[in-house]
Amino acid sequence: MKLIQLSSVLHFTALSSALTLPLNRRSPCEEETSHNAPLLATLGGSVFDVDVTIGADNQTFKLLVDTGSSDTYIMQDGFTCINATDNQIIAPEDCKYGPETYHVSSSYEQVPDQNFGIEYGAGLASGVMAYETITIADVTVRTKLAFADRSHPMGDGVNNGLLGLGYPSLTSAHPGTFTPNDTYFYNRAVYNPVVNEMYEQGLIEEPYFSIALAHTARDSTGAFGGYISLGELPPVELTSEFTTVPVEIMENIPINITSDKRQISYWAFTTPAVKYGPAEEEEDALVVDHTPFQLFIDTGNEFSILPTAVVDPVNTRFEPPAVYNDELKAYIVDCGAKPPVFGVVVGNQTFYHAPEDLIYDTGNGYCVSTLVPSEKNGRPVLVINILGVPFFKNLVAVFDFGKDEMRFARVSNGYFL
């Protein structure tokens, strides 16, 4: 999820081992037992939501799919919307969540002496922790969920909260009935995120989930967005074998943010190189930057936030070149510009961004590059590199919390079966 906020227009989202069987795609005859859920793409294909059902009375919501955070939260009836600038109460509709909100069902059981509080780059959300049932991709589990009664504006006009898919160490339950909002990163009452709990209860066969994001038109307001699959692969056409990288401990995350333990928190790995050049360049003529750097994978982020030494030379290769804007902390680019080639090396493969994924239309009469500099957008003592939505739209990503590894394979021109 978003770690850092650039402006009111451009905001970025934050701040036991088991064997895994070989990955096998489901055959058509097995579709009735598959655990694939389609995604809805909103805001021009920059946000991806999934349908969930919650409670004994089957309340339905859409939640943002986010590998960059770990809590699943849903907005409650009568929630308070807070202006992120001056902390004044504003109209609930200004929070831009969908019209549905959660009301207590007969299966709801509040967790005593715990509260929920989380800080994203886009804002804060807080409330209570409770046991409740949730269904995703035809899998129903009773587990801990967060129910928010206060929030900054963070919706897309459709979703009602967020599905967190990160590691348990980043969950944001806190002991007691109140936690100051400047300490949400600390003093965590760690618990299992939803998909981890599904596996622990034997509801999915394998300890992983996979995601494939679809390409959508920049001006689309709601379109097919791909799939999330639980314990299996999504029904997409692959054009490569899977490459595998281990999940790493983030080297620059302060230990008190991850419950005072040096442990895995984000879906992080080290890329050994990036490749880039003019759009017409052949692959063997591309510039190859062999400087390795660590990053994490975030489906809740509209942008890829990477070292300045990487994004500066890439952004100069737009035709016409993108120009850095210090106020936005991003590179303004002509909406009709010709994007360069840009690829990230993962394991033994290079995954290239589709050209259209390198330009983001703000909807305010100008466009920006989706590659932004991490050193100029983070907190002074915490620089974090992120591969966001632009990276995801050309591959299937498998997140294996049993083996603590990620696997990636290319898709066929973004074509979905």
UniProtKB/TrEMBL annotation:
Positions of the Peptidase A1 domain: 48-409
Protein name in the entry: DNA, SC010
Active-site residue numbers: D66, D298
Entry's family note: Belongs to the peptidase A1 family.
CDD domains: pepsin_like
Signal peptide boundaries: 1-18
Record flagged with keyword Protease: yes
Stored Pfam families: Asp
PROSITE patterns assigned: ASP_PROTEASE, PEPTIDASE_A1
GO MF terms, alphabetically ordered: aspartic-type endopeptidase activity
Keywords: Aspartyl protease, Hydrolase, Protease, Signal
Keyword check for Cytoplasm: no
A GO biological process held by the record: proteolysis
GO cellular component terms, semicolon-separated: fungal-type vacuole
Organism: Aspergillus oryzae (strain ATCC 42149 / RIB 40)
